[in-house]
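[Q] Does anyone have a clean structure-token version of this?
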Amino acid sequence: MTHHRAALVLFSGGQDSTTCLAHALSRFERVETIGFDYGQRHHIEMQARLRVLNELRQQFPAWASRLGEDHVLNLGVLGQVSETSLTRDMAFQMESTGLPNTFVPGRNLLFLTLAAALAYRRDVSVIVTGVCETDFSGYPDCRDDTMKAMQLALSLGMDKRYLIDTPLMWITKSETWQLAHDLGERSGVPNGGQRLVDLIVEHTHTCYSGDREHRHDWGYGCGLCPACELRAKGFEHYRTLV
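[A] Here you go.
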């Protein structure tokens, strides 16, 4: 990626997108972020985005100088067409399709298309996203084949060569914690690895239930939903390795 100078990170304020943001800040001269307000039930993640960005700027000065504009797009129409537990008041369950009802059809495809349109205007060629095919819920729009197809379609459709960077695609959740630690260590901040892990624990949000009351070793959440369970198990395994 040495010939790429700028990146746009799809940033939700969660563990994965924060790790991806650190990944981008360690590699590119200019990094911008984009978030989407799509009518999600728990608006707490939109607040988490701002907290994480503020903490990164304060705690990691070298990264702060690279961290550029944050963009938020209103995608309420996605919530209008999606009957899912992320956009409606309904309990988590598995559907007859074999996918959980947290799957928002077309969400990542729309996110990437709009991110590419913004990147076009901002003269950015790299789009970074935290999709993963190792520890995930089976979402078809998180798969490597989907990312490769989107990269080709966007590059052809906008006549601009895009790179969709997926640093978490083939790693587990415990390895995502370790990656965050390693990136923090290379940030130039004393004890940067632990500081970045602590930042992710304290300020990012993953819980499907929007729980910011219950504090665990791995962060805030209900501790029961699939997102919390995955985060908790990954953190527990990570701690056995450090």
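[Q] Thanks! Anything notable?
[A] The chain has nine helices and seven strands.
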